[in-house]
Amino acid sequence: MKAKIMVVAALVMLPLLGFGQKFAFVDTEYILNKIASYKSAREQVDKLSKQYQSEVEQGYADVEKMVKDYQSEQVLLTPEMRQKKQQQILDAEKKVKDLQEKYFGREGALQKKQEELIKPIQDQVYQAVKDVATEGGYAAIIDVAASGAVLYSSPRYDKSDEVLKRMGY
């Protein structure tokens, strides 16, 4: 947090020190929410996430039921049958954990879907911001949506609508 404040303070102080750099800001959250294809992609990813979460929760519920069933009947089971049931429970739990990793892990299906649907739109926004910065001669454009360090920004320096315009929205 201190590092972010120091960076913002340095950016604010540079023009006062005579360096004359120009700075602006954008709100990528605002920009993305104005893009219909982003909203649609976000809805698809959210729907898929809920579906995956439901499957994983059902798997854990099934394992929990297996444990309860085992606990209620274990006194009636032979040692071999107990061991077999315990192994079935462990296998079922591993299967659910593997499913969770398959869906939500670093290389999981949800991450891949986000990269497929959302990343191209984010890349377009980044390119438009870069173009606005280059053409406007800005030394830096700060994203107020991504940084909690910007406590105030004048609407005069907000280039969000310019980025949207450059993107054709």
TrEMBL record:
Keywords: Signal. GO terms for biological process: protein stabilization. Pfam families: OmpH (PF03938). Belongs to the Skp family. One of its GO terms (molecular function) is unfolded protein binding. This is Molecular chaperone Skp. SUPFAM superfamilies: OmpH-like (SSF111384). GO terms for cellular component: cytosol. Residues 1-24 form the signal peptide. InterPro entries: Chaperone_Skp, Skp_dom_sf.
